[in-house]
C-alpha cells in the first residue's frame, strides 16, 4: 500500500516515535512524506521514504495530488491543533480530499494506533479487491 507520513513541527517527535515502534510494518509498504517529516523518520528508522516538498512549500498538495489520482491508501498526519500554520488552506485541502475519496486519515496518535493495526490485520484490503487501491503492497 502507499502510505503518507506527515507531522507538524510540534508533533514530529510523536510521529518519529510511532514510526520507530511500527518500523517492521511500515517497511512492507511504499512510504511517502512531506520534506522535513520524511527526513526525520528516515534518519530515525532507516526506512526508505519518497520525500515531497516541505508542507509549507507545497508538500501537502503533492500528497493531495496522489489522493486525487487514486495513488494513496492511508495517511498518518499528526496535526498540531494549537499552532496556526501559514499553509492552513493546504492542510484543509488535504483533509478534504481524504473525505472526498474515503481515504483513511489518522490525525493523532490514538487514531494512528487503530489505523496501523487495521492495516496490519488487512482491514484495508477491500481497496485492492474493489480496485481502489494503489495496487502496490
Ligand atoms: O507542514 C507540514 C504539514 O502541513 C509538514 O511539512 P514538513 O514535513 O516539511 O515539516
UniProtKB/TrEMBL annotation:
CDD domains: MGS. PROSITE patterns: METHYLGLYOXAL_SYNTH (PS01335), MGS (PS51855). Residues 1-137 form the MGS-like domain. One of its GO terms (biological process) is methylglyoxal biosynthetic process. Substrate binds at residues 8, 12, 34-37, 54-55, 87. InterPro entries: Methylgl_synth, Methylglyoxal_synth_AS, MGS-like_dom, MGS-like_dom_sf. One of its GO terms (molecular function) is methylglyoxal synthase activity. It is an enzyme of class 4 (lyase). It catalyses: dihydroxyacetone phosphate = methylglyoxal + phosphate. Signal peptide: none annotated. Its EC number is 4.2.3.3. One of its GO terms (cellular component) is cytosol. The active site is at 60 (proton donor/acceptor). Keywords: Lyase. Belongs to the methylglyoxal synthase family. PANTHER family: METHYLGLYOXAL SYNTHASE. Catalyzes the formation of methylglyoxal from dihydroxyacetone phosphate. This is Methylglyoxal synthase. It comes from Mesobacillus zeae. The gene is mgsA.
Amino acid at each position: 500500500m502507499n502510505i503518507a507520513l506527515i507531522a507538524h513541527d510540534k508533533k514530529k517527535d510523536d510521529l518519529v516515535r510511532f514510526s520507530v515502534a511500527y518500523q517492521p510494518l511500515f517497511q512492507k509498504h511504499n512510504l511517502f512524506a512531506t520534506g522535513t517529516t520524511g527526513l526525520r523518520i528516515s534518519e530515525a528508522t532507516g526506512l526508505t521514504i519518497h520525500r515531497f516538498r516541505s508542507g509549507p512549500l507545497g508538500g501537502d498538495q503533492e500528497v493531495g495530488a496522489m489522493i486525487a489520482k487514486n495513488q494513496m491508501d492511508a495517511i498518518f498526519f499528526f496535526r498540531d491543533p494549537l499552532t496556526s500554520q501559514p499553509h492552513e488552506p493546504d492542510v484543509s485541502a488535504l483533509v478534504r480530499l481524504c473525505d472526498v475519496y474515503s481515504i483513511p486519515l489518522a490525525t493523532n496518535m490514538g487514531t494512528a494506533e487503530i489505523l496501523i493495526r487495521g492495516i496490519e490485520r488487512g482491514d484495508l484490503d477491500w481497496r485492492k479487491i474493489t480496485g481502489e487501491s494503489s495496487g502496490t503492497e
